[in-house]
Every structure is written in structure tokens, then in C-alpha cells.
Amino acid sequence: MPQDQPTGPLAGVRVIEAGQLLAGPFAGQLMGDLGADVVKVEPPGVGDPMRQWGREKPHGHSLWWPIVARNKRSVTLNLREEAGQELFLRLVEHADVVVENFRPGTLERWNLGYERLKERNPGIILVRVSGYGQTGPYSERAGYGSIGEAMGGLRYITGEPDRPPSRTGLSIGDSLAATHATVGTLAALLHRERTGEGQIVDSAIYEAVLAMTESLVTEWDVAGYQRERTGPILPNVAPSNVYPTADGHTILIAANQDSVFGRLADLMGEPEWKQLPSYATHGARGANQEELDQRIADWTAKHDADALLQLLHEGGVPAGRIYRAEDMLEDPHYEAREAIVRVPHEAFGTLAMPNVVPRLSGTPGSVRWVGPKLGEHNDEVYGGLLGLGADEIAELSGAGVI
């Protein structure tokens, strides 16, 4: 497995990742993608449950684990044992950031709370991702991403209006909390560079979801307007919908801005629509959304998808197919920008996975290796970083500490 030297903007930053499942590990993935040395701490014997997660597991291998644990070094460590806690503190002495997503209070029960970490490393940044945050009456509740999506307002407005609230096909709540946690970590690192002070980064899943809900709360607070489930459209934003084609496909067209709608009207051979009181303005098109969508659908249904897309692209109207994985792997734009990268894997040869985002021109991140085997880097970290001898490592292993 290649252990290439990181070249991203976080090269030289060491992260101890003590979380499991998704929110904490995804934050660790983002930091590792940007060049950080992420040392993932896992329970001996079983490891992170993410090693077993995923809808497809060819030959018993999770296809999720190689992605969420990429660029990380794996060590085993029993944090419930006093000897394990001491070893963790020794790792903290060599770290810049600790990431954890246990239920609030867990680290404190293990005598590994922020104050203890700070004693060993005054500049340490403790990143805490949880369902409800570290404070407040709900803080000690178990909180998965789906619960945060519901409490943060996303579930209620997702789906068709005549059906119960739906969910996206992704663990979006966990991923949003991890992304916000990473943004907070970068800000905390900058603050420490200026002052030498570490701090706690507290990222709650429900708040990360809430942060993405635009003016949802303000609309209710000021106008008593409650957003509802609206399927593929946003009310009063038209035209912006999926439309049928003659060859049985659907094409997404987003032409709700006045100038863009004018271009669409010209392409449709209906230039007079630009002056019609019912279509001339954004508000008017929103008030006549259903009628307008039907007229556009009648037009798109006369064209094959490829020809329609070429016409729309040439006319400066935003439009596109609704992609599946196979479309992404075949798309020339994906290929040209290397949006999907293939990484060596000992069981599969290579694995296709999303590349690093965002792109930095001077210090780009990279995917250097896939998720490691459990405890693969015990000798490298405990021996090389902490200076433990082979006998000490063997003794700790025999005692179930590592």
C-alpha cells in the first residue's frame, strides 16, 4: 500500500480520530484528503463498524470503508482501560486535533475530557460531533444523522406533497455535521496559529442541517409561512423542473431567472412570452408555475434528449440529465476534471471513488491510499511516533490494550 507523503494544505497537521461510523470519520476523511496525518483509533478486535457497512460487500469487503477511511493510519486502542487512556494521552501530546463523535460525556467518563487533553497539550483542538451538541437538555440523548435531519427541518420538506416525509438516499445529516466540523477545525487552527490557544469545536448534526435550510425559520417567524413538501419543484420558482423527452428520458431545466427564461422562450419559438404579463417576471412565472411547466413539457416531449440538451446548451439555458453512477463514470467532464479517481486496492485492483474537493491550485489534496486494515499501523505509530519497543507493544497487545 503506497504511503505517499501528503502535499495538501494540512500537511504537517496530525489528527487523532477517535470516532466511529460516519460523522467523525467523514470529518477525518476531509482532513486527510487535505493532507493531514490522520491516526484513526479503533477498538481492538472489532474496529469501527464502518468496516462492515455498505449495501454491497463483494467477497466480504465493505465498499464504504475504503473511502471513509482513506488516507488514514489505523491503530487499535482500548479507551476503556486506564493503560489505553494513558496511551491515548501520549498520542495527544503529538497531535494538533482530536476528532470524536461519541455521545456527549463519553470522553469524560474515560477521563479524556478536554481539560485532561489540554493538560497534556495546551494547544490541542478537540472537535466534537454529536446529534444535539455538547450542551442543552437533549445533549445526552443518542442522536443519529437521521434524527438530526428530522429535527433540523430537512425531513419535513423532503418528498412528495401527498406522502409522508422522505429521506435522501445518503447520510446527509452526518456528512453536513462533519463538513461544518471541518470548517470549524480550520478556523480553530488559524486561531491557534495566531494565539497559541486550542479550543473545542462543537458541531451538532441538527444545527448543521438547520444551517442549510435557507429562510425556512424566518419565513414562519415573520410571515407565518410553512414550507411543505413539493416534490421536484420549489414553489414560485419557475421554470425549474424535470421534463419528458420523446425518447423516454427526463431532462432537468432551470430557467427561472428573467434573462435565462427569455433565452428559453426564444429557443421554444415563443419570444412573445417574454412580454406576457403571466410570464414576464419571476413572480408572475411563479404564480403560473403549473401552466408554464405543462407548456414546456409539451415542447420537450417532441425532442429526443441528446438533441434537446444540445439545443439548450447552445442557447445558454442550464439543463442536464439526472445522473446515476454509471453516467458519472462515462461522462467526459468527470473524466477531464478527474472528479472520480481510481485508487489501488489489494482485493479489487483499483476502486473508483470521489476525488478530493475543493481543488486548491497551489496545495492540492490527494487520495493516497484506501482505508487500512485494523491496526495496520500499530508498530509504525506506537513504535515510530511514541518510541515504544517491540516488547512493550507485544505486552500491550497481550493485555488487550491495543
Automatic annotation (TrEMBL):
<keyword id="KW-0808">Transferase</keyword>
<dbReference type="InterPro" id="IPR044855">
    <property type="entry name" value="CoA-Trfase_III_dom3_sf"/>
</dbReference>
<dbReference type="InterPro" id="IPR050483">
    <property type="entry name" value="CoA-transferase_III_domain"/>
</dbReference>
<protein>
    <submittedName>
        <fullName>CaiB/BaiF CoA transferase family protein</fullName>
    </submittedName>
</protein>
<dbReference type="InterPro" id="IPR023606">
    <property type="entry name" value="CoA-Trfase_III_dom_1_sf"/>
</dbReference>
<dbReference type="Pfam" id="PF02515">
    <property type="entry name" value="CoA_transf_3"/>
</dbReference>
<dbReference type="InterPro" id="IPR003673">
    <property type="entry name" value="CoA-Trfase_fam_III"/>
</dbReference>
<dbReference type="GO" id="GO:0016740">
    <property type="term" value="F:transferase activity"/>
</dbReference>
